[in-house]
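Hi there, hope your week has been kind to you so far. No rush at all, and the record is pasted right below.
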Amino acid sequence: MLSFKFKRKDRSIQHAVRRIAREQIDKAIETAEDKSIDSEERIHAVRKRCKKMRGLVRVVRPEFDGYEKANATLRDAARRLAVSRDATVQIETLDDLKAEGDTGEAHEVSEAAYRSKRLELEARKSEAEAGSDPEQLLSEFVSEMKRLRRAVKRWRIDEDGFAAIEGGLTKTYRRMRSAMHEARENPSTETMHEWRKRAKYHWYHVSLLRDAAPAMLKARASALKDLGDLLGDHHDIAIFRSMLDTEDEQDALLERTAKERQSQLEATAFELGQQLAIESPSTLRKRFEGFWGLMKD
């Protein structure tokens, strides 16, 4: 995230948001067009760029009339690339579970069962991708990003300074806390995934502000990334579990293995999440306003 941050030299928040958006779009286009990289890797990388840009526009959302259009453009551009990535994640999840097979229930799953399930997932991936050309999808993505880049120069942020970002920052943090509490009270694939999304947006916002107080905010950003990774793995396993046939003996063993790993991830995520959400939204807002003042002194 080297360029994904506000800088002391930025003339205004509007200038900073436009600069960061252009940089992220340019990097997304460069990656999408680099055929020396496997198409699946490019798709994964540019989808992450879209998520970061959605985090960027979200931090100024209350002061940015163009938010809805920009967010929808980025959301839809990433979604159109999702088919290949989603299928790949299922295979990666199985491989991760196999790699941890020396503990818990996993050792009971035979090598043949792993191979069989992997072949099944690869077949599903091929079926999902049938009629879909990754290079064509990436080419269409590039065209969409070029249109968005032209629109960036017209983006208007109504406020400046901390006033331009405090609303988006505080609301996102509040929603992260609420999502965590909901996930604890009513744990499900949906509530845990919602918590993940809110935590990632807060991570993007802290990353944008990290130069204001590097000693404090780089550590917080790192912890938030860890939380996002934990919740991401948790979600991947949840989706993986949903496609298992628990009437099948080997699938039932895989289900227990996956559930065991998911429970471990969940416990670690809640322990970390509580530490990251200990402040009230108003207290966090005041603290970050102080950090912002340090950057602008």
